[in-house]
UniProtKB/TrEMBL annotation:
Coiled coil: none annotated. Belongs to the serine/threonine dehydratase family. GO terms for biological process: isoleucine biosynthetic process; L-serine catabolic process; L-threonine catabolic process. The keyword ATP-binding does not apply. This is L-serine deaminase. SUPFAM superfamilies: Tryptophan synthase beta subunit-like PLP-dependent enzymes. The keyword Disulfide bond does not apply. GO terms for molecular function: L-serine ammonia-lyase activity; threonine deaminase activity.
Length: 451
């Protein structure tokens, strides 16, 4: 049976509890003094030791880059169609055109290729939120290495199914990445496999750095690189690579406000377990920053910024409409940094900036909701509720005519009669209006003053 962390009580250690009433003692608040950590040697990941974190060197990065460049084609770096709108030369490092839809294939290939023959025979196990599991399953199948992935039960069904298709042994466990990792360690002891951390394994970080080298080869004049951050492996790899090649370049990390483990680690000076909640950037919901990643990146990155779901949804909408790219929430986090109001990165105006778009795996049920949310935020969809005195065709016609007169289109029109209202003639209409021009104030004014 798994041992639970020992609890202490939130009280002054110098204050004696003897003599206090039992009712008082019972009300002391239990506090977990530290995040969960493995309790036995078999459960520890030797490649991610919090007491002895590893620094990824440029030599490590070059070794990984040479191996990856022979297997994986260089991904495109494209100039934005809206540079004038952003007041900078903005480029996108597009990491979505892979078999499994994300840059994780770089990491998976290299991490598996450096295993020894005995390790390849026994196979590997990992815990993942989705993208890393897909990539590891894909290259496990290609290289003939058994792969076991432990996914939280909240993982989208299509990701679970795809991992099965790629030959991985799939286990669904718990609600969070930490839950899945704990189960993976339990299974690891029984199976004798190698555990590969998807964001903190040194080989994974070195492989991620290949993106940074490619960016500077494709665009040497780059002034700044904006990187989405979950556990920090990608940020650590890119910063270690580009700062070695071009020390003056700026490297910024972007996290969401509701899963800000790396941001918090930078403020506290060490990784620690933080409370995270679900958001649009599901691949970035990591409760504890990677120890190796933090140790490597902390002295290299120039800034960490936080964004919310509103910024992410607007970035996704912009990429779909203007750049013709379907990017998941985590992948769009880099661009989301420029969607904040007021601008949180004014120092980058007139500079050449690269946003890393890390993946394009998004649930087809979630995508339209994200795009609609962004349009509502930007005032392009207006939702109104109107009360009609009579439920007659001409009353509905009057409403629709007023909408047409201000140059807008109706995308949803729902009419409902309240069953418990005293006046049975009243009808309430909920309307969703998509605008041709920026006329939401006009629409609301027309309805407010209409008889």
């Amino acid at each position: 049976m798994e041992k639970l962390p020992k609890l202490t009580f939130d009280q002054d250690p110098l204050k004696e509890s003897l003599g206090e009433a039992p009712a008082v003692l019972a009300k002391r608040k239990p506090v977990d003094p530290a995040p969960w950590c493995p309790t036995s040697e078999e459960q520890k990941d030797p490649s991610c030791d919090p007491d002895f974190p590893k620094t990824i060197t440029y030599k490590d990065i070059l070794t990984a880059y040479r191996a990856i460049s022979e297997e994986i084609p260089r991904t495109p770096l494209v100039r934005s169609k809206c540079c004038a709108e952003f007041d900078m030369e903005i480029f996108y490092k597009v990491e979505i055109f892979y078999q499994t839809g994300s840059y994780n294939e770089r990491k998976a290939f290299y991490a598996l290729s450096v295993l020894n023959e005995d390790e390849k025979c026994h196979g590997v196990i990992t815990a993942s939120l989705g993208n890393w599991a897909l990539a590891l399953a894909f290259y496990g199948q290609r290289l003939g290495i058994p792969v076991t992935v432990v996914l939280p039960s909240t993982t989208p069904v299509y990701v679970v199914g795809k991992c099965h298709e790629l030959g991985a042994f799939v286990v669904s466990y718990g609600e969070t990445l930490d839950d899945a990792r704990r189960q993976a360690f339990v299974m690891l002891k029984k199976r004798g496999q190698v555990y590969i951390n998807g964001y903190d394994n040194p080989n994974v970080i070195a492989a991620s750095a290949s993106i940074g080298i490619e960016i500077l080869e494709q665009l040497p004049e780059t002034d700044a690189i904006i990187v989405p951050v979950g556990g920090g492996g990608l940020l650590a790899g890119i910063s270690a690579a580009v700062k070695h090649i071009k020390p003056g370049i700026l490297v910024y990390g972007v996290q969401t406000k509701t899963s800000s483990s790396f941001y918090n680690a930078m403020e506290k000076g060490r990784p620690y377990q933080t409370v995270v909640t679900r958001n649009l950037a599901t691949s970035l919901i990591v409760p504890t920053a990677g120890y190796n990643a933090f140790h490597t990146a902390r002295g290299l990155i120039d800034k960490m910024v936080l964004v919310n779901d509103d910024c992410i949804s607007r970035a996704m909408l912009h990429l779909v409409e203007e750049e013709k790219l379907i990017v998941e929430g985590a992948g769009a986090a880099s661009l989301a940094a420029f969607m904040s109001m007021p601008n949180i990165l004014p120092e980058l105006r007139k500079k050449t900036v690269v946003c890393v778009l890390t993946g394009g795996n998004i649930d087809t049920l979630i995508l339209p909701r994200c795009l609609e949310r962004a349009k509502i935020i930007e005032g392009r969809i207006v939702k109104l509720s109107v009360r009609l005195s009579l439920d007659e065709p001409w009353e509905h016609l009057k409403v629709l005519s007023m909408i047409a007169n201000v140059g807008a289109n109706v995308i949803q029109y729902l009419s409902e009669k309240p069953l418990l209202d005293d006046d049975f003639d009243k009808t309430y209409v909920s309307i969703s209006i998509i605008q041709i021009f920026d006329n939401s104030p006009l629409i609301k004014t027309v309805f407010y003053f209409s008889p």
